[in-house]
Amino acid sequence: xxxxxxxxxxxxxxxxxxxxxxxxxxxxxxxxxxxxxxxxxxxxxxxxxxxxxxxxxxxxxxxxxxxxxxxxxxxxxxxxxxxxxxxxxxxxxxxxxxxxxxxxxxxxxxxxxxxxxxxxxxxxxxxxxxxxxxxxxxxxxxxxxxxxxxxxxxxxxxxxxx
Length: 162
Description:
By secondary structure, this protein is an all-alpha fold. The chain is 81% helix and 0% strand.
């Protein structure tokens, strides 16, 4: 196998592991409080709790693949690529902390506001990714949609459990 092919594969593997590890660590830190989803009032269209880890795993893989494309193609416009990756890192941080705010602290309004910042970071990621590798931006669309839906759920939980 060529050195360049090995480097590309390694980039994709690492890029996928990063969001999966962050999501896994967040789940580990909130594991004792995940049961609250079954105990609180939830808005219409709330999916069953078992669906969340499945969806997030898929999203984390898409996020990793997307970031690998950007990392491997940042030579053309390094500033835009690096800005996109920075927004992506920010969204991962906000994603990680959101679970703690929602599940561990049960601060639903703050979790909703936190999610709005996260959604903004994801949109900024997409805008920058699109300039480098449009496919990388398109792979982020499910992340935007799910985060917007999570915003609806979070806001609904706040309203219904005040």
